[in-house]
Automatic annotation (TrEMBL):
Residues 263-331 form the Winged helix-turn-helix domain. Residues 698-710 have a biased composition (Pro residues). Residues 4-138 form the Novel STAND NTPase domain. The lineage of its organism: Bacteria, Bacillati, Actinomycetota, Actinomycetes, Kitasatosporales. InterPro entries: HTH_77, nSTAND1, P-loop_NTPase, TPR-like_helical_dom_sf. Residues 680-710 are annotated as: Disordered. This is ATPase. Pfam families: HTH_77, nSTAND1.
Length: 710
């Protein structure tokens, strides 16, 4: 749950109502017009109720999600549940939340009310420990739903000697603008009048307080009549409550300069947060210089049109959905929407392209985080490309370029969603389609879905041969090797990897994919019993990773090193390599790398005089739970599942049936962080980019200061 950054004013009765309903029911929906404070009330109520739920309170912001099919993915992401499978996200949520006790806040459901209603209904029926607190301009109409209708703040005192809530809110926000501002006998009547004229809507009150830099309370009130009359006339068919809010926003809009109005409209193309660089690129041109954007953004922050997010080293901005919708109306009315959407698409195509370049190097963790922050806007750009005629090829390019994020940060299901849509719209044999084919084939392989993977990879290979696309041919052959490897054909896989590496070398390709081909070739030889050649390729991967500061492929190399050392009887080194594999993959939230290493760690607990069969079985249970979020356990491969079966046999032979079952059950009850902490001996890895001081095992590659070459 986000921390509050300004004082919460009033709403004591409403908070008591929500708190009481949450104790008695499992679904509470806070309804009311836009700008009335639904989100703020829900966050305050959820924070107070969090202690009563073993797994706490979690916020899922629905407002930035436009496609109902992505709602489940967005909730998974908000709950920090990573899933690699091809299953529907709702099925994954039901499974992963089955034994949780938590409060889920779904904020801003009105534009996806049917999808939200379906999601809530299914989750409440299937997850007995779940409660939902939703905010929406209309009810979800789900069985068991209890509504809290949030009215505007009162502009009249509740009792003699007290301050009206709307007046108290105005005074608090005004003091942030003018530190000496106070409600006095001289200004109380005028402030009360202003709040009444604003109907006590918190958003309107806060915007009015922000104008005290330029106007007095009396001047603000005097300007309301004309602005209300003009803007109400423009929205005669809108519901009354929307007329009030739009009038308030329109009045604030009128008080902005022409340049401020212009950038407000242009900033409406962003979904979720954005940084200054993005705003400067997208909004500049056609009457607005790039060097004007900083001052204008700062001005809109002052006016509460934009909100500032992030810490001082990574400042980001966002716009409330209601204000964003208003700006979008002006953008459409001005006939500039298509140009701005194209510039938005171009910027986030650049984010994806530069991310793909920087993925091979020392800034992988930062790249993963930067792409995560851009996720909502990347979705918006993909949606634009898929719904705008003539943009289909760019949809293929964008979805394919993001392979590093889909694969490396736990978004396989969503990645395939976008690629499947793009491939269906653009059947012509272009280079963009070829890349999309091998990427979707690769992701399907990682999910154990060879039925879908093999045809896509074969189509990519045939197209590459027909068109002379050597790069696509290399990638197609490489990923066909992956399919052979998990299909228990290590000899065939080794031949394909050798062929792919020959193609990569011929075209001068060197990146994380090439390193993964080397790693996979090494694993194929290890599975064939050729330890010498297997270790040779794994050592080559480590050398290149250390040279380039690459960590993601290096983590997979650590898995192979652990497997090799275990086969050679070097248990201490094998454990160190496997733990470091878990630690690094946890930084990227790559569940596949984590679960592969965790199964090796379980087997290692059965080795030597200090063997702990109970701990081995606990780790197997934790790995089992993770596999459910990855796909078919061990990809359906008997070869990859070998360590698991051997560990299971040893544990069964050395434990009683009850011990065997209880330890496994204990492991399946561990969440991701708890499972990783257990695998690492009690220490949880730091955030992406954190150092490794004090951790046992091999250190990750050094991370020199990069000198990007654009």
């Amino acid at each position: 749950m986000p921390a509050e950054v300004s004082r919460f004013i009033g709403r004591e009765a409403e908070l008591r109502a929500v708190d009481g309903l949450l104790e008695e029911s499992r679904l509470v929906t806070v309804t009311g017009p836009g700008g009335v404070g639904k989100s703020r009330l829900a966050l305050r109520a959820a924070a107070a109720a969090a202690a009563g739920h073993a797994d706490g309170a979690w916020l899922a912001e629905v407002g930035a999600v436009q496609d109902p099919l992505l709602l489940g993915h967005a909730v998974l992401e908000a709950l920090r549940l990573t899933d690699h499978t091809a299953r529907p996200p709702l099925d994954v949520l039901v499974e992963q939340l089955a034994d949780r006790r938590l409060l889920l806040v779904l904020d801003g459901c009105e534009h996806l009310v049917e999808a939200c209603a379906e999601l809530v209904d299914v989750l409440l029926r299937a997850v007995p420990g779940l409660k939902v607190l939703a905010t929406s301009r209309q009810s979800l109409r789900v069985p068991g739903e209890h509504l809290v209708l949030l009215a505007p703040l009162s502009a009249e005192p509740a009792a003699p000697g007290t301050e009206a809530e709307a007046v108290a809110l105005f005074a608090d926000r005004a003091a942030a603008v003018l530190p000496d501002f106070r409600i006095t006998a001289a200004n109380r009547a005028e402030v009360s009048l202003l709040c009444r004229r604003l109907d006590g809507i918190p958003l309107a009150v806060e915007l009015a307080a922000g104008r005290l830099r330029a106007l007095s309370v009396e001047q603000i009130t005097a300007r309301l009549d004309d602005r209300f009359r003009v803007l109400t006339g423009g929205w005669r068919t809108a519901p009354p409550r929307h007329q009030t809010l739009r009038t308030t926003i329109g009045w604030s809009h009128e008080l902005c300069s022409m340049q401020e109005r212009l950038i407000w409209a242009r900033l409406s193309v962003f979904a979720g947060g954005f940084d200054l660089d993005a705003a400067e690129y997208v909004c500049a041109g056609e009457g607005l210089e790039a060097d004007e954007v900083l001052d204008l953004v700062d001005s809109l922050v002052d006016k509460s049109v934009l909100l500032r997010d992030g810490d001082p080293s990574a400042v980001r901005f966002r716009m409330l959905d209601t204000l964003r919708e208003y700006g979008a109306q002006w953008l459409r009315a001005g006939g500039d929407e298509h140009r701005l959407l194209c510039r938005h698409r171009d910027w986030y195509l650049g984010v994806a392209t530069w991310g793909e370049v920087e993925w091979f190097g020392p800034r992988q963790a930062e790249t993963a985080e930067r792409t995560r922050l851009a996720h909502a806007n990347l979705r918006a750009a993909l949606e634009f490309c898929l719904t705008e005629p003539g943009e289909e090829q760019l949809a293929l390019v964008l979805a394919g370029t993001l392979w590093f994020y889909w694969v490396g940060s736990g978004h396989l299901g969503e990645g395939r969603h976008w690629l499947d849509r793009a491939l269906a719209l653009a059947p012509e044999p272009t280079g963009a389609r070829a890349k999309a084919l091998w990427v979707t084939g690769y992701m399907a392989t990682l999910q154990g879905d060879l039925v879908r993977a093999r045809p896509a990879l074969e189509e990519c290979r045939r197209q590459a041969l027909d068109t002379g696309d050597d790069r696509a041919l290399a990638y197609a052959v490489h990923r066909q090797g992956c399919a052979a490897l998990i299909g228990d054909e290590p000899q065939r896989a080794a031949e394909l990897f050798e062929e792919a590496l020959w193609h990569y070398n011929t075209i001068g390709e060197l990146n994380s994919n090439v390193l993964m081909a080397m790693f996979e070739l090494g694993v194929a030889y290890l599975f064939l019993g050729d330890t010498e050649r297997g270790d040779l390729w794994i050592d080559r991967v480590r050398e290149i990773c250390e040279e380039h500061g690459e960590q993601w492929a290096y983590a997979y190399g650590l898995y192979a090193m652990a497997y090799s050392k275990w086969a050679g009887g070097e248990i201490r080194l094998a454990r160190a390599f496997a733990r470091e594999c878990v630690r690094l993959n946890h930084l990227f939230r790559d569940l596949l790398g984590i679960v592969l290493a965790m199964d090796v760690l379980a087997l290692l607990e059965t080795e030597g005089p200090d063997a702990d069969l109970v701990e081995a079985r606990v780790l197997q249970g934790a790995a089992h739970r993770l596999w459910q979020a990855v796909g078919t356990p061990f990809f359906g491969s008997r070869t990859f599942g070998g360590p698991h079966r051997e560990c299971e046999q040893r544990a069964r032979a050395g434990l009683t049936a009850q011990e065997f079952t209880d330890a496994f059950r204990l492991g399946t009850g561990l969440g991701l962080d708890a499972a990783v902490r257990r695998a690492l001996g009690g220490e949880l890895p730091g955030p992406p980019g954190a150092g490794g001081e004090g951790r046992s095992g091999p250190r990750p590659p050094a991370r020199p200061s990069p000198v990007p070459a654009r």
